[in-house]
Amino acid sequence: MPNMSMTKNPMPAQEPEVRNKNFNEVALGYTEEQAIDEAQRCLNCKHKPCVGGCPVQIDIPAFIAEVAKGEFEKAYQIITRSSSLPAICGRVCPQESQCEQRCVRGIKGEPVAIGRLERFVADWHMANSTEAPEKPESNGHKVAVIGSGPSGLACAGDLAKKGYDVTIYEALHLAGGVLAYGIPEFRLPKAIVQKEIDGLKALGVKIETNVVIGKTISIDELFDEFGFESVFIGSGAGLPRFMNIPGENLNGVYSANEFLTRINLMKAYKDDSKTPIRHPKSTVVVGGGNVAMDAARSAKRLGSDVTIVYRRTKAELPARAEEVEHAEEEGIKFAFLHNPVEVEGEDGWVKAVRCQVMELSDPDESGRRKPVPVEGKFITVPCDCMIMSIGTSPNPLIKSTTEGLETQKWGGIVADEATGLTSRKGVYAGGDAVTGAATVILAMGAGKNAAAAIDASLMGEK
């Protein structure tokens, strides 16, 4: 019998005053009973509007129908026809602005909890399945993938399933890209990332770490000396941006990239870490996206009092609503309509951030209201740590060492939206290296599109 409840089954989670002191995963996941009950809320719509909101086109009603019947492994097999990383996507994708936004149940109530169900199915499979995926027969073609983030993993996974000999080249010592260094353990456990990567290795994907393309090996060498027939660039956007205000070079001022990499990849918060990070007493985080929320919540777990400074209002925050809600529950403060103009220091260390008070202008022709300064109004926020989370750009190394690769003025690689093909023959690109910082699932979609285009090209198809 359908479940006509107007609300989702709530996600079990650690209590805020407990979780803000540890790095364990906040959301605990559905039980089998909760998953089945939630799946029964799905109306199995004929036109499947939710699928149109999924960048990788998972057959959402079909997998949910199997969950409703308790056929969790069948549900997993349906998901993995389209997605190589379901346990990751179920945790970090912005379902509320994609598949769930189009759910018919969301018209008069809450949409079906598609992301929570995807996570449940993937976790159930990891806990209960003992069969390794069958390695496909080789088709004799070689493809190189630069970067082991979501776009690179998705591209490699799809090609490996078709029998390609795929090697991923990763600059860091651990595979996963932003999944490993950018998203905190409390939101995406690294053991989950490793299990997803192990699944790709079982398909035959090889991963070479500590290889910086453009330094260790050039793209030309991948073709000429290593014998690859196509190259996919999924190197992400890891070059941080700063505001260029006085005092930004003081000790205690971090980019969100550095702060989160040290926390996530190097476990700098642990007492026995070889690269320990200073535990701040008071932290200011500048920005309003998911990365800003991750940095703020990580600083909170170091024992810091945390304030997020954002130049617009709460209504304009680009971060996921769930992440903002979790941050508020954990005791993080927000200073809306404020913009840093100077970092004040003492003995070489940050001691405060001076902020201009802002207001929103009248709507412009597009209807958007811009933040403008309120003349003469400032506040000073004391802190011994400041984290800049105002965006990133692609690393310029690949474009500066590769002839014939067209790039945008801001650094992004120019690539066809549908295929990922760049201006260089045989070279494809996707994800943040093309678009700038975006979401995991959009990067995966770009990787899948490029894999299909590479396959068609090497197999002589249109």
Question: What are the defining features of this structure?
Answer:
single chain, 462 residues, alpha/beta, five-stranded parallel sheet
Largest sheet: 5 strands, parallel
N-to-C span: 46 Å
In what range is the share of β-strand residues? 15-25%
Briefly note the structural class of the backbone. Answer: alpha/beta
Percent range of helical residues: 25-40%
| Total DSSP helices | 17
Biggest sheet strand order reads 3-2-1-4-15
Uncertain segments of ≥5 residues (pLDDT<50)?
none
Name the average pLDDT.
94
CA radius of gyration is 23 Å
Inertia-based shape: globular
What is the number of E strands?
15
Task: Give a concise summary.
The chain has 462 residues and is α/β, with parallel strands linked by helices. The protein contains 17 helices and 15 strands. The model has no long low-confidence stretch (mean pLDDT 94).
How does the SSE layout of this entry go?
Layout: H1 16-19, H2 32-39, H3 49-52, H4 60-68, H5 72-79, H6 86-92, H7 114-128, E1 142-146, H8 150-161, E2 165-169, H9 178-181, H10 190-202, E3 206-208, H11 219-224, E4 230-233, E5 239-240, E6 253-255, H12 256-264, E7 282-286, H13 290-301, E8 305-310, H14 321-329, E9 333-336, E10 338-346, E11 349-360, E12 371-382, E13 385-388, E14 392-393, H15 397-401, E15 427-429, H16 432-435, H17 440-458
Parallel strand pairs: 1-2, 1-4, 2-3, 4-15, 6-13, 7-8, 7-13, 8-9
Antiparallel strand pairs: 5-14, 10-11, 11-12
What does this structure look like?
The chain has 462 residues and is of the alpha/beta class. It contains 17 helices and 15 strands. The longest helix is centred in the C-terminal third of the chain and has 19 residues, at 440-458. The strands form 4 sheets. A 5-stranded parallel β-sheet has the order 3-2-1-4-15. Strands 6-13-7-8-9 form a 5-stranded parallel β-sheet. It has a 3-stranded antiparallel β-sheet with strand order 10-11-12, with no helix packed on it. It is globular. It has helices spanning 16-19, 32-39, 49-52, 60-68, 72-79, 86-92, 114-128, 150-161, 178-181, 190-202, 219-224, 256-264, 290-301, 321-329, 397-401, 432-435, 440-458, and strands at 142-146, 165-169, 206-208, 230-233, 239-240, 253-255, 282-286, 305-310, 333-336, 338-346, 349-360, 371-382, 385-388, 392-393, 427-429.
